[in-house]
Design goal:
The protein has 320 residues and is an alpha/beta fold. Helix 4 packs across helix 5. It binds iron/sulfur cluster.
């Protein structure tokens, strides 16, 4: 197993609201290893993006981390000053968001974004930074002369490639990609995923890939973590997870994905919707939607346990 890049333990994140406290992430522990792509999947509102933002300490108010640790490079990110976090973001931990226009300044040329990023965190002079930017953008399949264009002159796919380029520019130890393909059409999405896979293998990038799209995870992830209602419910290497998912929620997610080899006429759609996180159901939070729910599931919360080597789940079906 490669070295640990990030270790999250017992993380809890609350959003105090007038109606009560929404516990968006509840006691989540997760390790990310160097050179792997960890897919983090689940329905909207399950806490996966909140977890990504918490690693960067960029939770929007009133979101608050109320417990746990996030260890990166031997230090607990929750104990760093804002200045120390600012130095870490971009340089050591980079991000690729769903809509790159929210990260790219529309008034700055693409070259300015690269130069600013490289010179803020690196030591290159202006000419050296520009040469590096031209090399990077060329590697991303964009002609170097386009460096002086503005973001609005780029397509959505090209803007996403620029975001990856900015992460590569600083040789980040960890990239958090949050729904990076959601704004792309299917052709551009496929091209972007191909490029990301090539870059990941070439540079041994460590990526947390946050998405609701199981197909995207199947393309790229080495391991997959599944979240439901703020909890981690399954974690395994990608192949065993897709071949033999253990948790009924993961099974439901997989069977609701269109599949060319599907023999039945209709897709199986998971019934119900995720619970209210101010008053989550007692016991297993999935029990109101679970086709295998038992009496015990309604009252006792299952622990997150390793059922087979490297394959973890939180479900009473696997209690020996
Ligand atoms: Fe379903 Fe029970 Fe397993 Fe929860 S613990 S997923 S309700 S079988």
């Amino acid at each position: 197993m490669n070295e640990r890049v990030l270790e999250i333990s017992n993380l809890r994140i609350d959003y105090p609201t007038r109606a009560g406290i929404v516990r968006a992430v509840d006691d989540v522990s997760l390790t990310v290893y160097s050179g792997e792509v960890l897919g983090l999947v689940g329905e909207s509102g399950c806490g996966k993006s909140t977890l990504g933002m918490a690693i960067l300490r960029l939770l929007r108010p009133p979101g608050k981390i109320v417990g746990g640790k996030i260890i990166f490079d031997g230090q607990n990110l929750l104990e760093l000053s804002e200045e120390e976090m600012r130095r870490l973001r971009g340089a050591r931990i980079s991000t690729v968001f769903q809509d790159p226009m929210t990260c790219l300044n529309p008034l700055q040329r693409i070259s300015d974004h690269f130069l600013e990023t490289i010179r803020t965190h690196g030591s290159q002079d202006k000419h050296e930074a520009r040469r590096l930017a031209a090399q990077l953008i060329d590697r991303l399949g964009i002609r170097a002369e386009r460096l002086d264009d503005y973001p609005h002159q780029f397509s959505g796919g090209m803007r996403q490639r620029v975001m990856i380029g900015l992460a590569l520019a600083l040789n980040a130890d960890l990239i958090i990609a949050d729904e990076p393909t959601t704004s792309l059409d299917v052709i551009v999405e496929a091209q972007f995923l191909d490029l990301l896979r090539d870059l990941q293998q070439q540079f041994k990038l460590t990526i947390i890939l946050i998405t609701h799209n199981i197909g995207v995870v199947a393309e790229l992830a080495d391991r997959v973590a599944v979240m439901y209602a703020g909890k981690l419910v399954e974690l395994a290497e990608a192949l065993p997870l897709f071949d033999t998912p253990l948790h009924p929620y993961t099974r439901g997610l997989l069977s609701s994905v269109p599949n060319i080899s599907l023999t039945e006429d209709r897709l199986q759609i998971m019934s119900g919707s995720p619970p209210d996180l101010i008053n989550p159901p007692p016991g297993c939070r999935f029990h109101p939607r679970c086709p295998r729910a038992m009496e015990r599931c309604r009252v006792e919360e299952p622990l997150f346990k390793e059922v087979e080597l490297g394959h973890w789940t939180a479900c009473w079906l696997y209690e020996k």
